[in-house]
Known about the structure:
β8 (about 110-115) and β9 (about 120) form a beta hairpin.
Amino acid sequence: xxxxxxxxxxxxxxxxxxxxxxxxxxxxxxxxxxxxxxxxxxxxxxxxxxxxxxxxxxxxxxxxxxxxxxxxxxxxxxxxxxxxxxxxxxxxxxxxxxxxxxxxxxxxxxxxxxxxxxxxxxxxxxxxxxxxxxxxxxxxxxxxxxxxxxxxxxxxxxxxxxxxxxxxxxxxxxxxxxxxxxxxxxxxxxxxxxxxxxxxxxxxxxxxxxxxxxxxxxxxxxxxxxxxxxxxxxxxxxxxxxxxxxxxxxxxxxxxxxxxxxxxxxxxxxxxxxxxxxxxxxxxxxxxxxxxxxxxxxxxxxxxxxx
Length: 307
Ligand SMILES: [Zn+2]
Ligand SMILES: [Zn+2]
Ligand SMILES: [Zn+2]
Ligand SMILES: [Zn+2]
Ligand SMILES: [Zn+2]
Ligand SMILES: [Zn+2]
Ligand SMILES: [Zn+2]
Ligand SMILES: [Zn+2]
């Protein structure tokens, strides 16, 4: 599908995801709920835009929105690898290979194409740019970028402690800090009746908290999860939904069944074992790359964050 330049002018919108770190005090709860519920589709890459992206572009005349990053990609490009014709931006649903780096995407992606020669190259090869939708999550001090596990490997998630497959949000600075897509976009405040399809109910919204220290667990007489009745992890940095006033606590995946981790263990263990060495190498290489990218971002920070 060819991507065309939008005919109206677009405006940069600030999604203002700022909320206090001490989540117990937030004056305008209603306002926060509305803000975090924001979600729309990007007209170019067809992936979701959420409040964690911080900014996005919006048309004021029609229903058209773009990620901040997707907006700056040109729809036409002259590229040295294919100087005979100009290349057009398109959304590749066929998951075809890039003619330069030979990479094959796992989900549909923006690419540049010459339709006459059926020549196409990925965004990275075309612009040297990195097509990552960075998010700013309150649980972590550094920006996170989405990475798709190239091999089908279950990876432990730093939010729920469980294993998932698929797209993870990874810290550019910390080594091996990963949160699965399903976990990272969980709502900050949740009514357990909404999250459990009415199976459980509590008057107050539960607050998503990014750790449950042992001292706190002890002080509350080691509470168990209201949904599964199991205790909480000794790993203090796992996320938990809670209403402290009522000592009502729940594991994130228990409270939010809608976002339950995709625990598909159908792969044989042998398979995942083989891939681990490969996985580590990729991880190290990527870490070095992202570290450099982050340094670049720091230098350009003013430009990136100024509307
Ligand atoms: Zn996009
Ligand atoms: Zn428009
Ligand atoms: Zn490529
Ligand atoms: Zn051509
Ligand atoms: Zn998780
Ligand atoms: Zn980090
Ligand atoms: Zn539970
Ligand atoms: Zn309560």
